[in-house]
Amino acid sequence: MGSSPFTVIFQSSSSLNAFASEGGARGRLFLDQKEAMTRRAEVERDLLSPNTRPMVVPKKVNRKRSSSITGRGFGVNAPTSGEVSTLLRLDTLKSEGVCYVPNVLSKTAASDLLECVRGELRRAYKAVEEDPERSVARFNVPADIMDPLRGYMLMPLRDEAAVEAGDNSGAMIRALRECLTAGTVLGDLFGSDLCGGGDAEFYDLTALRTEAGATRQPIHFDTPFQEVPGLFCAFIAMEDVEYSMGSTVFLPGTHIESSDRLAFDSGSSVRDSMLGSKRSAHTALKAGDAVVFDMRILHAGTANLLVSEGGGQRLLFILTFRNTAAKEPLGHKPNLRPDYRNRGITLGDMREELGGTEPFKGKARDGKSFGDGL
Ligand SMILES: O=C(O)CCC(=O)C(=O)O
């Protein structure tokens, strides 16, 4: 990533420290909170570490339960291997709350998307450098409390480089086609009954960024427990991600009201004894692989180590869809550019666009242009 005055201001915790001590009250509060969270996260790391393993691709399908998840059996025809794999993944998502899904993007699409995300990041930094007020629309956070080492960049449906070049199938469109079209690995998960089928609502389109030196997060959930799962998210790797660059650690089975989840929610010493004995799995994603999870599950981002220890910029592409059958508060606002939010754009709408020759160039069902979301 090329540096910009914005990255110079925010390039390290110590510069944020200096910024905070120059009178930014919100910045100081942010730092205090961050320090407390890091201390807690380190306690949790030590509790979890004896029982943490790299996440693996699921191997066994419970056919009876899978049929009930998708609302259909295998029918008279033998299932294709693609169908079996989808059922296995749905089964795993339902029982564990998380599933390693390899090859959701081809290697070429993954590396093109990485270049595209880096380009978008440069443009977003420049925009905020010119006008800090733009930070919320670009990064979902005001400039004065932006974490230099960890954050989200909100992405456009058509990347800016492709728009400028008049290219109707730029890197972002190609990636969305590979991820969302019916019959693709990820498309069949988002399009399943578990997530609300074609009516699943477009909810996050973002890139997660951590830099060398980013500390570990405390264990958390993104959406509180409710019977019907409301949000399903895919973290997609655009290059191989070494553990030293950070990973996501998940506590399988904690998306439902299990004894482990109840222990966590009690918030007392019971929580720590649960963490001390709980089996957890951390991601070790290769380029094009994804981890898909029910956002009720307990999880955390692990530390991105110093460069001298193998740390380095980690960028993940993120897609989330909402099952509109979940009616309770989600506690997680859409991680979307402002003008893409609350428009009821569905997976079905996106598939229709992606099946055409000029995706997202025209108007959505609400009569407004898809546009760049800003
Ligand atoms: O860094 C990660 O892998 C996890 C990020 C995360 O869980 C969050 O930002 O809520």
From TrEMBL:
<feature type="region of interest" description="Disordered">
    <location>
        <begin position="351"/>
        <end position="374"/>
    </location>
</feature>
<dbReference type="InterPro" id="IPR051961">
    <property type="entry name" value="Fungal_Metabolite_Diox"/>
</dbReference>
<dbReference type="InterPro" id="IPR008775">
    <property type="entry name" value="Phytyl_CoA_dOase-like"/>
</dbReference>
<protein>
    <recommendedName>
        <fullName>Phytanoyl-CoA dioxygenase</fullName>
    </recommendedName>
</protein>
<dbReference type="Pfam" id="PF05721">
    <property type="entry name" value="PhyH"/>
</dbReference>
